[in-house]
Write a structure and sequence with these properties.
The protein is mainly beta. Helices cover 6% and strands 32% of the residues. Keywords: Signal.
Amino acid sequence: MVAVVHKAVATCTEILNHRSAEAQPSGGCFSMGPLLPLLTVLAVVPQISLASHHPLAYSHRQHARAVTLPAGWTARGCVTDNPGGRTLGDDSFTDTVGMTVESCVTFCNNKNFIFAGLEFSQECYCGNSLLNNAANATSTDCNDACKGDATELCGGASRLNLYWSGRQPPPPPTTVPSVGLWESLGCFNDTAAARTLSVPAAVNGNFSVETCTDACFNLGYPIAGMEFADECYCDTDFRNGGSPATLADCNMPCKNNGTEFCGGPNRLNVYNFTGTLPHGPVAPPPPGGGGGGGTPVFPATNLPPPWKYAACFVDNAHGRIFQTELNDNPNVTVESCIASCSAQNQTLAGLEFSVQCFCGTTLVNGAVLGAEADCNMGCGGNTTEACGGPNRLSVYTALPNGTVPSLPVPVAKTTGLPTGWSYSSCIKEGPNGGRVLPNQIDFQIIPEKNTTIDGCLTRCREYGYPAAGLEFGSQCYCGDFADVATNSGGVAPEADCSIPCSGDLIHLCGGPQRLQYYKFSGTIDVWHQPANIGRYEFLIGGLVVPLVATVGINGKVNFLEKLGTGFPNSTGAYELDLSLVHDFDKAWRALHVHSDVFCSGSLILPDKSARQLNVGGWSLESTFGVRLYAPDGKAGVNGTNDWEENFNELHLQRGRWYPSALVMANGSVMVVGGEQGSNGFQEPTIEILPTPAGGPTWLFMDWLNRTDPNNLYPFLHVLPSGNIFVGYYNEARILNPKTFDTITVLPNMPGSVIKDDGGRTYPMEGTAVLLPQHAPYTDPLGILICGGSDFGQALDNCITTQPEVPNPTWTIERMPSKRVMPCMAALPDGTFLIVNGAEQGVAGFGLADFPNLSALLYDPSQPVHQRISILNNTIVARLYHSEATLLPDGRVLISGSDPQTNFPNGTVKFPEEFRVEVYIPPYLNQGFTQPSYTITQTDWAYGGSYAITVTLHQGTTANMRVSLVAATSSTHGNVMGGRTIFPAFSCTGNTCHITAPPNANVSPPGWHQLFILDGPTPSHSQFVRIGGDPGKLGNWPAFADFTLPGV
């Protein structure tokens, strides 16, 4: 018997619509292919396959060895499977020695199935539909070598390597209304202990409604019933209180005819014969050719040690007593069943109904002994051996003294739960196969064969979800109370949740289409909804869609955009004078770059002019580009400087697309990672600017090489030790700033609640900042990372860590909504504004959907899990290539969006966004007058004391604060050089003395916006330089066509 519950006919959209047999690194099923015609006959579900950020990104990945398939068959990647509800449920076989892709596909092809799948190195499954919410899986999950050919892949744990014939599937199964003179009576309940139809019948040939009704006709019975896909029962009347059940409960396709339903778990599809039977009822002959009053059968005795016969057990008295059922085998023997169980390291074997073999290490569901005479059916492959009977198992054991461990009847777990959790009830899944709770935990996190209530509840709580449900014994789901109220079909009888947990066999984990539902009673994450939420305002129309936004020390905003691959006639760079936004023509000044800065990296140097450095670019020479701009002019007055670049004189050692850059504590510039131009190979290296003498000095980093291409625009931060934090993909480490060797490998960054391989850097693209540092700088420094993607769904959390404490860990705080491609701007009061992005997809052109229009405020001064406030909304979708930048007046400039996303008919869905907005944070939305100050010394030495004269309007210097927000350049949500410092200060009257940070580890050399805060209200900033220019960047590069400001 193949116990496959037909929960829902999933569409093949996300599985078939992707490239064949490509091994994708670390997750996701990537597609650029067209939607296949067969999908029109299947119900549509959300597509989860995603193209990469450039079409050839994975063209150089390693492939499994090519196989020779029957005509029309192609590989379709790795998909999920579940023993409780198979993805392919029509036919199967196991070959523990010789399984190959060719043998499996040929087997399915010869039986006219359109899908074939291989699992666990030795199992082959066939079908005409992808069932039970099958979905794409990470290709590396399918990593088991085939038993018959180690160069081929044959799936993995609960993962299928899927193959497709290219043919259209048959219609989904239905309840057949009639077969000849047999009329359907619908679905009826049944139990093994008290059968509704009492006469089991052997079916000749393939199992279907037709063959079962034929068997009952030939035996002279007017009522026929099919159960569990391949069991046939007959009778003259309904017995033991058998009564109609919901038709949807009979949801298992017939074993050999996937177009018909043949009952379900403890459910019968019942048919009544309306004609004249050939004779009266007769006793059926026993299946398998033996026993039952014919040839006597006996337990097998000549077995390999230490195996021996134990006893005849009742099956299904309280549920199935074995957890693992092998495929039906008409030639099974006791010896072959034991051999299969031994190969799986199981110590118990059971045989039932002549052709069924079960394996396990303990019996479950309160197994009880049956009469030895009831195990009277001969094995299909040896009619003298006892192979159980109808709902009777001949059980053999390899344990000492013939021991057969048995666990009691499982019950719902109601005590000893993780703190805060309580059991609610057994509830129904949604109608039409809809899910109550949206987040199913991946089996890589909670193993399919080791699911427990505690493990599920702990996972949901950790990621901020107060509603948890378990189903099918091995599936864990997380969500919110609102999901249950909206989606559930209501409370179900407790008896419907009848499947024991795979990792805790004395407790129940739901049932078919039934959830064991648990609720968390405490508060996990608090999202404040303040009365003052700030607001968005339109600032000015733009000339281009900027990729890089940088506020210069002249108070103007420098925008860089694609040159040559962008808009016609663009010069690639423009400067916005914020004092002239009322006059469009005067507000914008054209600057000029000489190569394409598309997806380059930028920061502000610590030299006297606060030059803006831009490195890398799109292709060819531009990927080696090193560009410099010294901001000049002042409010209302244009400067005359422009971008300076000369590839022949100054360039990177390695071409880089999507690199990051950092000013280190010694004043040099570190450039990390990227790719070798558009669609190029990875560039897993680090180099230093100015380039050291002595030939090539770049360094290969294996951790970048290993995580390509999911590590672009890595997060870089100088730590108080002077060491360097690097965050890339879902990993993080601390580097020595002199050798760039790894000092510490940090724990992997958490992903989404459903799986751990979600990423935080491009193309998964979250955003990261350092948490504020406060004098005297003795507290550990924290890092905050928000958003990202798990290769399709955006992440809905922020994570924090303190990388230099002993045994650092990550703390997860759930956000109110999902967000990929967010932007985060540090505010002068120590909070962080989170804006922009999408709720689905990844970064890249046309790869994201459902814009996130809300703004959030993250306040690290509040307790963990209470730091997020929900602010205002915008009407402007800002997706790929959008930025958020703190302005000197305390507002945040919001710019860009270049998604290049169209509807299927070619019309624009999300436009390239020229409009520039500002966000007015709550501290400027109260009607208070901003404080002000004067300062004369703006070039600060470490530890020095510097005077300012302040003017306050609300409070006194007793409640005043001073903050230093590092001057940054922002692209793709990566704020390069970001840092917020609250220095020590003292005041006498309105004269205050600020103590500069003590060293370059606390505050690497560079420029900062200096703010004072009168209560909550910040002043306008002025720029100060801290730490000078120890790397002497002001004298670099020493070429006549570059303007050098000096150190």
